[in-house]
Design brief:
140 residues; two-stranded antiparallel sheet; 39% helix; alpha+beta; globular; 7 strands
């Protein structure tokens, strides 16, 4: 189900849309931030990854002012957000995380976590700003 966050931002359930997702997932900076990956994703890997996330949790496109700016997923009480570079630092990820925390409460989850690499200070600060705390290799 689509989730409207505010008049600028909504979460749209995942569907295969390579035109929207592939350019972001081939950005080497984004690949490193999210998965500490030094090479871009290919279409086959993206399909397997997003199909898995959809089958085991909730996976959404983030739409900001009518533009798909990337993905948000929740699986087994773990959340992840990816925002393309040109839309980072506009509080899009923060607003999406707050919405996903509401969804987690609706599902009866008591805790959620996020695995963020130690070098990704930008994501760590964003998650901490909404109440997550560092816990070993991740955040809860």
């Amino acid at each position: 189900t689509e989730r409207i966050i505010d008049n600028e931002l909504r979460l749209i359930p995942y569907y295969r849309n390579d035109e929207a997702s592939l350019p972001v997932d081939q950005d080497l900076d984004v690949c490193r931030q999210v998965d500490n990956r030094e090479k871009p994703y290919d279409v086959e890997l993206l399909h397997r990854m997003y199909d898995y996330l959809t089958a085991h949790g909730d996976c959404y496109y983030i739409e900001y002012k009518g533009v798909l700016v990337e993905m948000f997923a929740e699986e087994n009480s773990e959340i992840a957000v990816v925002v393309c570079k040109e839309y980072q630092n506009q509080h899009i990820g923060r607003r999406c995380v707050l919405e996903m925390l509401k969804l987690a409460r609706e599902k009866g989850m008591e805790r959620v976590k996020a695995n963020i690499y130690s070098f990704n200070g930008q994501s760590q600060r964003m998650f901490q700003s909404v109440g997550f705390e560092k816990n070993g290799g991740g955040m809860v």
